[in-house]
């Protein structure tokens, strides 16, 4: 039996049918279960488990940091934001990384001491992590898919804002200080509907 296809759209239809018949279909296929920031876990700089689910119900500003960077003074701004909004529920979480310029070469103990002595940092910090490439921490791989390639960290002190329910709601590049108006507005928008603490 000969089948004549009279139009280009007919050819496409035949190809689509053949593809459906030939390609394997998995009934077990499931969506990626990592749909919320709360699905990810870090290790705290002190060595304990640090699941982001621990911060459920609170907005989180996650920042990849470095101790020997031209932007290291942003630690002061992060400390200011933390002091201003922590009682309303904000969490600032630093994720030290040596990925850019080798500017975080120290051990976790050295990083912690540097931050405490020089900036009075007492907000949570993680152990050193990779934030780019194949070895990036799973949170950073997930975050990079949310707003496209421009939202990936390109240097130290890149900022991600997570909503109280675990959605990635905004990002801010290295050159945007944590005290910039647009960062503050974004944080306040996440805090606006939260009950007083």
Task: Report the β-strand fraction as a percent range.
Answer: 5-15%
Distance between the termini: 76 Å
Give me the secondary-structure category: alpha+beta
How can the largest sheet be summarized? 4 strands, mixed
- Output the CATH homologous superfamily: Glutaredoxin
Q: Estimate nothing, just give the exact number of structural domains.
A: 1
The total count of helices amounts to: 5
Radius of gyration: 22 Å
Q: How many strand segments?
A: 6
What is the CATH architecture assignment? Answer: 3-Layer(aba) Sandwich
- What topology, given as strand order, has the largest sheet? 4-3-5-6
Mean pLDDT equals: 87
* N-to-C series of helices and strands: HEEEHEHHEEH
The CATH topology label is Glutaredoxin
Q: Label the overall shape.
A: globular
- The CATH first-level class comes to Alpha Beta
Residue stretches low in confidence (pLDDT < 50, at least 5 long) are 1-31
Instruction: Work out the helicity level.
Output: 25-40%
Describe the secondary structure blueprint for this structure.
Blueprint: H1 8-22, E1 41-43, E2 49-51, E3 60-65, H2 74-85, E4 91-96, H3 108-119, H4 138-146, E5 159-162, E6 168-172, H5 181-191
Parallel strand pairs: 3-4
Antiparallel strand pairs: 1-2, 3-5, 5-6
How would you describe this structure to a colleague?
By secondary structure, the chain is of the alpha+beta class. It has one domain: Glutaredoxin. Helix content is 30%, strand content 14%. It has five helices and six strands. The chain is globular, with a radius of gyration of 22 Å. The termini are far apart. The N terminus is likely disordered.
């Amino acid at each position: 039996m000969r089948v004549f296809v009279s139009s280009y759209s007919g050819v496409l239809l035949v190809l689509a049918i053949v593809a459906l018949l030939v390609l394997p279909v998995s009934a077990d296929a499931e969506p990626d279960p990592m749909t919320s920031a709360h699905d990810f876990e870090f290790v705290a700089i002190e060595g304990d488990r640090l699941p982001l689910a621990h911060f459920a119900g609170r907005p989180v500003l996650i920042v990849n940091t470095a101790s020997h960077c031209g932007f290291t003074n942003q630690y002061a701004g992060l400390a200011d934001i933390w002091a201003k909004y922590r009682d309303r529920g904000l969490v600032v979480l630093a994720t030290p990384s040596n990925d850019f310029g080798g500017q975080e070469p120290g051990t976790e103990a050295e990083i912690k001491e540097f931050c405490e002595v020089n900036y009075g940092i007492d907000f949570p910090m993680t152990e050193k992590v990779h934030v780019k490439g194949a070895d990036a921490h799973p949170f950073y791989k997930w975050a990079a898919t949310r707003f496209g390639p421009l939202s990936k960290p390109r240097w130290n002190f890149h900022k991600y804002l997570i909503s109280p329910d675990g959605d990635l709601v905004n990002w801010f590049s290295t050159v945007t200080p944590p005290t910039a108006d647009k960062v503050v507005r974004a944080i306040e928008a996440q805090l606006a509907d939260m009950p007083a603490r």
